[in-house]
């Protein structure tokens, strides 16, 4: 196990004690580093009174469910899946700035309803203090469903979470953020299964080419805006890979393929949102 600073060691203890105080819980488990740390702490604190629950839908990238199952097995926590159907919700499909609110509402509705069957009393999620500085309408859905956020309660930020994951030997400690595929579609453009498949296949192509931090953003007119780390920009402009990328994305249905010179950055779709939207509370459906 990696060593922890004395302050982070204290936060680890507080995190475990906070989860022990829940008595039992279902962790909203995406398989990313945040939910993995909550699941690990829950397993230490609660044992078989903790369960990890993964929502499965068309917006989940290929391979992510299998990775979540393997991670849950590494942690030693019971793992369950719930089929979500957010694509049946017009408000979600229309893809306004509050899309994530509707997605999380579907997930938490199902998780709360499943608590008696799962034999636990509380839903816990992986929000951390860094999430407070971004536009996260899904956090309002969590509040409305009384979802607990132990990382926030213990004032843990992203770097703290990664340090804890490394300390516990979790395989995802340095995994890049992997939000749902719908987050790649520009606001106002409909979320469809076809567009989700196009994005997923395009990103898998780039990862298979050796790139790690990648996003393929969908914009109007079947335009792909490709984001990679700044140091990888020149690689995508090289002859063979450039031609392969053009051929692959066109075969998937993209008509225009562009390279974002600003490079990879999480949440870049939010850059176009006006300040009044970022500050406005989400209206409930």
Biggest sheet strand order reads: 3-2-1-4
The residue fraction in helices comes out at 40-55%
Tell how many strands the DSSP assignment holds: 7
For the largest beta-sheet, the strand count, sense and barrel status come to: 4 strands, parallel
**Radius of gyration from the alpha-carbon trace, in angstroms:** 19 Å
State the low-pLDDT regions, or none: 275-285
Oligomer state equals: single chain
What's the total helix number? 12
Binned strand content: 5-15%
Gap from first CA to last CA = 46 Å
Q: Under CATH, the topology of the largest domain is which?
A: Rossmann fold
Describe the structure.
Helix 1 crosses helix 2 and helix 2 crosses helix 8. The chain has a four-stranded parallel sheet. A three-stranded mixed sheet has the order 5-6-7, with helices on one face. The radius of gyration is 19 Å and the shape is globular. With 285 residues, the protein is an alpha/beta fold. The C terminus is likely disordered. It is built from twelve helices and seven strands. Helix content is 45%, strand content 12%.
Strand-helix topology:
Blueprint: H1 6-22, E1 25-28, H2 33-46, E2 50-56, H3 64-75, E3 78-83, H4 90-93, H5 99-118, E4 123-124, H6 138-144, H7 150-153, H8 158-167, H9 193-208, E5 214-219, E6 223-228, H10 233-237, H11 239-252, E7 256-259, H12 275-279
Parallel strand pairs: 1-2, 1-4, 2-3, 6-7
Antiparallel strand pairs: 5-6
Helix pairs in contact: 1-2, 2-8, 5-6, 9-11
């Amino acid at each position: 196990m990696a060593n922890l600073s004395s302050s982070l060691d204290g936060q680890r203890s507080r995190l475990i004690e906070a989860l022990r105080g829940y008595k039992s819980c279902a962790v909203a488990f995406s398989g990313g580093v945040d939910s993995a740390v909550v699941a690990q702490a829950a397993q230490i604190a609660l044992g078989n009174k903790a369960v990890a629950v993964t929502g499965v839908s068309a917006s989940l990238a290929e391979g992510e469910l299998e990775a979540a199952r393997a991670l849950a097995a590494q942690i030693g926590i019971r793992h369950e899946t719930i089929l979500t159907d957010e694509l049946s919700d017009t408000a979600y499909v229309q893809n306004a700035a509050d899309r994530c609110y509707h997605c999380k509402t579907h997930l938490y509705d199902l998780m709360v309803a499943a608590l008696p069957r799962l034999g636990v009393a509380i839903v816990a999620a992986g929000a951390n203090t860094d999430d407070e500085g971004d536009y996260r309408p899904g956090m309002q859905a969590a509040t409305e469903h009384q979802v607990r956020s132990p990382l926030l309660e213990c004032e843990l930020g992203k770097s703290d979470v990664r340090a804890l994951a490394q300390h516990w030997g979790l395989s995802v400690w340095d995994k890049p953020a992997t939000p749902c595929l719908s987050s790649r579609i520009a606001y106002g453009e409909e979320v469809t299964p076809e567009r989700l498949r196009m994005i997923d296949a395009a990103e898998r192509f780039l990862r298979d080419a050796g790139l790690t931090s990648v996003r393929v953003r969908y914009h109007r007119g079947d335009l792909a805006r490709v984001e990679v780390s700044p140091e990888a920009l020149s690689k995508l402009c090289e002859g063979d890979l450039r031609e392969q990328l053009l051929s692959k994305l066109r075969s998937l249905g993209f008509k225009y393929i562009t390279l974002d010179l600003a490079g990879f950055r999480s949440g870049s779709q939010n850059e176009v949102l006006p300040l009044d939207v970022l500050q406005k509370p989400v209206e409930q459906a």
